[in-house]
Amino acid sequence: MPVLSFLELTSAAVRRATLSAAAACAVALAGCAVTPTHGPSTSNATPALSTQTMHAYRGRFSVRYLDQNGRSRNAYGNFDWEQQGDTVTLQLLNPFGQTLAIVTSSSASATLEVPNRQPVTADNVGELMQRTLGFSLPIEGLRYWLESSPAPTSHAKTIVDPDQSSRMKEIDQEGWTIDYVAYADAPATGVKRLDLTRRDPPLDIKLVLDR
């Protein structure tokens, strides 16, 4: 509420009425809170990550995919993930630390850079990676899945770890199954390893986070 409106409320009776209304509103909002369940559930109402959220991950990846001729291929190495708001920069490196590709994705566009070639830009990061690398990583979903949370943009089925209710065990969303294989213990916390699988077209991804 603007400061000027407070200065205009010179009547004590109006002030008391305003405070009473605010208190009633707060009580009503509190009554709307829903206690979370810990079993299998479906949801598309998970809160979006803040536009100011910043995350950084470092780890290892392996990808098994089919090339354009239907032959099984493998790619593996290390990765660096930096996320600032809705912009993600993902660097893929081979096991010797040499850059394979750098992907920058935002709500407006996506850019992919590979050594000794001009950067390529497109509207869709998945199509861009598929066309250039032969496989695509689900960047938009990973913004949330790396934090063991379903994306808020579509329907999802979630299963919580029955042995530790604060941890996610599985998310099924947008044609992907995300299995949370391991979590880091203190002093580090969060997801340690997650496996992602998709049936059509088939794609298997394994991520190990060193953070």
Task: List its salient traits.
2 domains, 20% helix, 12-stranded antiparallel beta sheet, outer membrane lipoprotein receptor (LolB), chain A, alpha+beta, 211 residues, disordered N terminus
Shape, per Cα inertia axes: globular
Strand content: 35-45%
Number of helical elements = 4
Report the CATH topology name of the largest domain.
outer membrane lipoprotein receptor (LolB), chain A
| Rg from Cα | 23 Å
What's the end-to-end separation, in Å? Answer: 42 Å
Order of H and E elements: HHEEEEEEEHHEEEEE
Could you describe the 3D structure shown?
The protein is of the alpha+beta class. The protein folds into 2 domains: 3-33; 43-209, Lipoprotein localisation LolA/LolB/LppX (outer membrane lipoprotein receptor (LolB), chain A, Clam). The chain is 20% helix and 40% strand. It has 4 helices and 12 strands. It has helices at 3-8, 12-31, 125-133, 139-145; strands spanning 41-43, 54-66, 72-84, 87-93, 99-105, 110-113, 120-122, 156-160, 168-173, 176-183, 191-198, 203-209. A 12-stranded antiparallel sheet has the order 1-8-9-10-11-12-2-3-4-5-6-7. The longest helix is centred in the first third of the chain and has 20 residues, at 12-31. The two termini are 42 Å apart. 19% of the residues are buried. Residues 1-39 and 43-51 have low confidence and may be disordered.
Question: What's the short story on this structure?
Answer:
By secondary structure, the protein is α+β, with helices and mostly antiparallel strands. The protein has helices spanning 3-8, 12-31, 125-133, 139-145; strands at 41-43, 54-66, 72-84, 87-93, 99-105, 110-113, 120-122, 156-160, 168-173, 176-183, 191-198, 203-209. The protein has a twelve-stranded antiparallel sheet with strand order 1-8-9-10-11-12-2-3-4-5-6-7.
